[in-house]
Structures
1.
Amino acid sequence: MNKDRSSDKKISWRKWLYIFGAWTATALFFASSFVLQNQISAQPISVWKAVSVQLASSYGWFVLMPVILWLANHYPLDRRGNLARSITANLIGGVALVLAHLAWDAFSQSFLGYRNRQFETYFSAYAFQFYLNFHWSCVVYLQINIILYGIRYYNKYRAGELRASKLEARLAQTRLKVLQMQLHPHFLFNTHNAIAELIHKNPDAAEKMVENLSDLLRMSLNKLNVEEISFQQELEFLNKYLEIEQTRFNDRLRIKKDIAPDTLDATVPNMILQPLVENAVKHGIAPLIEGGTIEIRSVRENGNLRVEIRDDGVGASGEIIDGIGISNTRTRLKQLYENAHEFRIESNKEKGMSVNLIVPFRRFEIKKGKSSVSEKQQKNENQNLDR
């Protein structure tokens, strides 16, 4: 609360400082014009007198600015409602402010000795100012309001853009969460089916798979509302999944990894690898009696994180059709990175398929209060499952 008030005060003081600077610049501009014009006069005025008179007049408008702002805010001409009331208030208020400023000019110019002619009374000096500058002062007042309305419309435009960007960001986050939630039941159904197959064939293996699934669910639930995690966390989750699949396939499923150490602290979408590896297991390795090998590689290159998942399974005989996991992966990557990523699924020259995922490399950090602790520092306390 105190921070918000302090911030508001800073903004308020800054706003009035800008207004003061604008009136000062205006005064200096017109002072320079008066000095040049009076060079051809029989009795030119001094630079100091021209500057002092213009500063006094401009600062008179600056003193009246709170009232001008109040009128513009309480009786705006661009708000639906009682337009006649707003017009009346602005006319009466505008004329009153112009007359007040003329009164100040009559006093300040007489005090500074700007006029060559002497006035017997203040009323005669004021009358002279009224006849000479009333219409010009009205134009100045009108210009002030035009500038204020221009600033107001600009602020409304910026506020609208900000609201639109926030809504777009919320929509993108909602889409990502929906896509991520779709992956959980899809993965659970497949794992449930695998456990059901092993219950009668190999009860011990089924029991071990249930234990691994419990660990996997615990890890998954802890990251349920998280969009991005470190690559090491993603690999830990993937390792648990692979333990389940290796329990199911025994020696038919072989895993090889080539993970570059400098990629472990990269930021990646949560649960981005599991559906890719599951796709390789289900469509590449499972149909083969002898099984096969899945290779997982990562490297940091050209400011990007590149992950490759390759299998030596049956491959694709025709057009590659995306399933739920692959389709969601494409959509999630598009939402997070737009065009700043690559995602390719292609057939290998010999046999099997390969998936290449390239995303911008960003170091993952965990923010704690005002400080941030790198995930790379935190992982030193944990066991690296790839070792």
2.
Amino acid sequence: MSPVRTLSALIQAFFQQYLIGERGLSRNTILSYRDAVRLLLVSVSSAARRSPDRIEVEDIDAQKVRDFLEWLEGEKDCSTSTRNQRFAAIKALFRYIASVAPEHLDRCRQIRAIANRRVEHRPPEYLESGDLQALLGAIDASTLRGARDRALLALMVNTGARVQEVVDLDLSYVILGSSPKVRLHGKGNKIRDCPLWDQTRALLEAWLRFRGNPPTPDSPLFPNARGRRLSRWGITYILQKWVEVSGITLPNARAKRISPHTIRHTTAMELLRAGVDITVISAWLGHADLSTTHTYVEIYLRMKQTAHEGTTANFLPSSIPTRYPKPSLISWLEWVGRAPNHVKSSEPGGRPSAPLSMRSARCAT
């Protein structure tokens, strides 16, 4: 008979041994799971009026999880999609608990039997070619930041890369020779090479000349004002800034809804209009399932428009200017996902604990 394990020990094993050790999930996915588990502990401990460290598996049943999901949508104002995403992480936790602590098997089964909330699937928003030209044309590339921003957004349109994939780009990932390409690290740490159009290459070359010699090949391709790697939020901010300057909008939507993922959808539609085969588009965007790419085909057919004659130059302007965490479960969850030099700590009782190892993020939204 297996020894009884506390919820705290089970959660730590779930993250360290299962999610990181066995499944090798990306940092962003780990952080998403961490947030879901932390919110569940906050909800249950608030209802039980006990510290999260004193919550055990027996304190969480199917009804408690339903209350948690209602709390997410009510008090936390989460969307249905976010609610389902948080619940997926909770189900994964209790699936793991059932596998290593079979005394909780029935409890875990009841929790996992809770149904997801039905989500209304809206077609992805995308920009028209004229909007892309207006967006890039609004950027003054005669300045250091302007050259960076135009090259950044042009690369996003060219590749359809997820925002995290752009964040992770180093100088060494870009080849600007006779066959220019960029190496992207996608979900599941999958690597793909995406060809660069001539206009994109020219913009990248102009940006690199403007920038000057970087310290090392593993320097970020697109640094911020302090020379550090741009964050996901930073790229979103840059996009929003030029959206406002260009004045472009989405149909029946405010301009602030134009996100980096909108650019990804736009790339898919541009490729589809140009007659690119759907399997090529799927590989271009790094889709794990071809059915994801079929979404764009359905939109395209409903549009009843003819395909564009070309794909590489329609959107570009014709002229290119040259601490230490406290020993509690909630604090431990805060610890998850930090860089190794930030997670050296000691376990309760003063015993040193090994730093949490985690592979660097190679994935995005």
3.
Amino acid sequence: MQFDNKAVGKTIRTLRRERGLSQDVLSGFAGIARTHLTMIENGTKQANFETLWRIARAFDMRPSELVRRIEEETEKGINT
């Protein structure tokens, strides 16, 4: 399986919307700039592990759960 920035962004955007959070709020919880979050969600910027960890914690989930969801999204893209 290859790393897919688009799958990362789609997963984070979906989780954020499911929780009713704006980019401003999520980026504040995660301690990152809103513009950084926007680029991650758009797939134009690759998030490093620390950033994914911060985003996962902002969602009140384990980083491994966020990675699992990203993997699922990546597999959907491969299988379509």
